[in-house]
Design goal:
Elements (H helix, E strand, L loop, with lengths): L10 H15 L2 E10 L19 H8 L4 E4 L4 E16 L4 E16 L5 E6 L11
Antiparallel strand pairs: 1-3, 2-3, 3-4, 4-5
Length: about 130
């Protein structure tokens, strides 16, 4: 064993303790949270319901805002709304990292005829919580 003068603690023990502290400083936990797309206002329980054959494109835009995508089909216009929420967590080590994420997609799709009248609409089964923007 090697001793340093006047301390009584072996130098090799000090090096091990310093090495351990450095390794601990390089290890950490992470939490990931990201939201993309439009606000999922179609999940708002106080929102007026959509009515096939009555609701217009303008009504949908006034209630939900601009869609994520506009899709023009032969005889129809489709408004596609998408909300994406990513959540995850992980542990960061010096040589090995573990990170897991889960992505949830919340969608609403509206189909309109040539005159801009709603013919069909559907919401995804998978959904993200609705949080009103205040």
């Amino acid at each position: 064993m090697t001793f340093t003068p006047n301390s009584g603690v072996p130098l090799s023990l000090k090096l091990h303790v310093v090495s351990l502290l450095v390794c601990m400083a390089l290890v950490g936990c992470v939490s990931i949270g990201k939201q993309q797309g439009v606000t999922n206002k179609w999940r708002d329980p106080s929102l007026a319901s959509f009515e096939k054959g009555v609701t217009t494109q303008t009504d949908v835009i006034n209630l939900l805002g601009p869609p994520s995508q506009l899709i023009s089909l032969k005889d129809q216009m489709v408004f596609y709304y998408l909300r994406e929420v990513t959540r995850g967590k992980g542990i960061i080590f010096i040589l090995y990292n573990i990170i897991s994420t889960q992505v949830t997609y919340d969608r609403a799709i509206f189909f309109f005829d040539r005159e801009g009248i709603l013919t069909e609409y559907v919401y995804s089964i998978e959904q993200t919580p609705y949080n009103a923007v205040k």
